[in-house]
Structures are given as C-alpha cells and as structure tokens.
Specification:
45% helix; globular; seven-stranded mixed sheet; alpha/beta
C-alpha cells in the first residue's frame, strides 16, 4: 500500500475538544504530545465554543513553543439537540467529535482524536500510521466494557451483544477520513440519537459504537488507551506505565481533582508532564485547595470507624448467641446422660 501525501511529509493531524474549564488540562495533554514527537510536523485542531482570545493565546503560545501548528475551530452549540444527555463527566463538548467529517479541511486523510484527560508518553508515529486495512477507525477496547447492572446499554446493544461485539472507547480514535467522508456526516449521528429517544449512557461513545462497531480495527488498549485506575487495580504501577505505555487515559476521577477521592501512583505521570507547563503552579494550587477543603478522606474514615464499631457490636452479639447455644447443647447432653 503506497504512502499518501501526508505520510510522505510526515504530517500528523491531532484533534481534541474542550471548553474554558479544560484549558489548563489541555495544556498538559498537548505538552505530553508535543515533547514526545520531535522532528514531526503536527497540526492540532481544537474544537470549542467558548474559548476567549486569552485562552487561545495561551494555547497557541504553548504549541508554537514546540514549533508546531494550532487551529481553532469554533463550533456552534445550537446545532446540537437540547435533548442530548449531558452530565458532569460528559459535557456537550463530548459530542464535538461527531462533527469532524463536516468541519475538518477536505485535504486531511486521517486524524487522531485524543481526549483532554490523556497523557501521550511516547512517540505515536507507529499508532498514527497504522494500516486501516479497509477499516474506518482504529480504536481500543473499552477497559470498563462491562456494563453496570441494569445499564440501559444492555438493551441498546442487545443485537450487538448477541453477536459478541467488542465495545470500544472513543477517547483515542484514529479516523480514516478518506473512507468516511461522503458516507457519514453529523446528521447521521443525530438521527441515530433521536431514533434511540436520546437514551444514551456514554453519549458520543454509544453512538459511535452503534454506527461503526463492524468497521473498527482494534489496537492494544494496554499500549494506546490504558485506563489508569483499572491498570492500578490490576497491579500495574507508575514505573511500569512510564516505561511501557504510549497513551494513558485518566478516565473517571482526574489527577487534578484534589480531595475527590483516594489517589494512586499512576497519576504521578500526569503531574510529571504538568510540571513542564506554564500552568503548573496554578494546577498545584487548585489541587491543594481542593484537597484541604474537601472532607472526603475524613468522612470516609469516619464511616469506616462507624462500620467497624457496628461490626464489633454484631460480633459481640454473635459471640453471646454462640455461648448460649453451647450452654443449651451441654445441658441437653447432660440430660441425655442422666436418662
């Protein structure tokens, strides 16, 4: 298979979506990406609806410091139905990747979409130039693929589940724009959402899986879309990830969320790259303030002490009951001996 004009020139097209609240975290992701791709022509496309001129200047300065290129693509939020579900974890910007086929320049043959809550820890040349083998996307199995009990996706994906399909994560997706363009567009995804009465659990991800589950080439999730907390639960540690993993995905609780929960050592990788950004001290101050003012740890420990006290009381009751039963048995045995 011959190389296309982009591959000959070594150009990479990277896309992400963000809002103002995520500018600092985008700085960290982009820093990790740019510093690990030396001697590569990178064009970064940022999809947004509310960035200020100051936000754009901050991001542009960071990217141009690595002698790379940045493009801001303004998205009209009004084109999205108000019935599309959003949560604190899934903002409207999560849907922006669904307009890539309508908004990106026509000369782009392929793009790599990356979520903001990722760290690119190594060169992604091998990933970016992966052979699609006639597929429309390259993606990774979602490491949290087991749907929770009573999850609405059991019904949404009933047909696909019966076929034994693999549910992929939309945080890292390599798009075959040349193959997709002309066959799909933003309206197709919105029509699908409407046909489901907008009942989606992982909004854009569910739509992409339903539309394209037979058109995906799967890559190694441990290498290119490693869920940090799940990795830690599996016994994988910071040094392992730092040495071996290309893309780490901080799905769920974020490293920058002070006091939101119990943190773990793989988050240190995120802070390694945060330290290299101009916003490091802002991030540290935000994390420290959140940690000091969030009572999560103390409330958790207090609940543990209360549960422990209840268990001790129940254990005492059980011990007393056992003693009583033992006395009854001994009494019955004694009575039997007299007879």
């Amino acid at each position: 298979m011959g190389k296309n004009k982009e591959q000959v020139n070594g150009r990479m097209n990277i896309v992400t979506a963000l809002n103002r609240k995520y500018v600092k975290y985008t700085c960290v992701m982009l820093t990790s990406l740019l510093m690990n791709q030396p001697d590569t022509d990178i064009h970064i496309y940022l999809l947004h609806s509310d960035l200020t001129q100051q936000d754009e200047e901050q991001l542009r300065a960071l990217v141009e410091n690595y002698n790379q290129n940045i493009h801001f693509l303004l998205v009209d939020k009004d084109i999205f139905s108000s019935e599309l579900p959003t949560t604190q974890a899934w903002s409207m910007e999560a849907y922006y990747r669904l307009i890539l086929l309508d908004i990106l320049p026509l000369e782009i043959d392929r793009i790599l979409y990356l979520d903001v809550d990722m760290i690119v820890n190594k060169s992604i040349k091998e990933l970016y130039w992966t052979d699609f083998e006639a597929c429309y996307f390259c993606a990774c199995r979602d490491m949290a693929t087991e749907f929770p009990a009573m999850d609405m996706r059991d019904e949404i994906f009933k047909e696909q589940i019966e076929e034994g399909f693999t549910y992929f994560n939309s945080g890292m997706m390599l798009w075959n724009m040349e193959k997709l363009r002309g066959q799909y567009c933003f309206k197709d995804y919105m029509d699908l959402a409407e046909s489901l009465d907008f009942k989606l659990r992982a909004p854009d991800q569910d739509l992409l899986n339903l539309m394209h589950y037979k058109q995906v080439k799967f890559l190694d999730e441990y290498q290119y879309d490693l869920f940090s907390k799940i990795a830690y639960d599996y016994g994988i540690r910071y040094e392992d990830v730092k040495r071996q993993t290309t893309i780490v995905h901080y799905a769920g609780m974020k490293p920058w969320q002070g006091g939101e929960g119990v943190h773990y050592d793989i988050e240190q990788l995120w802070w390694d790259y945060a330290k290299l950004t101009p916003v490091y001290f802002e991030l540290m101050e935000e994390f420290l303030h959140g940690s000091i003012n969030n009572p999560f740890i103390y409330e958790t420990l207090d609940n543990c002490f209360k549960v422990n006290k209840q268990l001790i009381e129940e254990l005492g009751k059980s011990e007393a009951m056992c003693q009583h039963l033992l006395q009854l048995v001994e009494s019955n045995m004694a009575d039997s001996g007299l007879k």
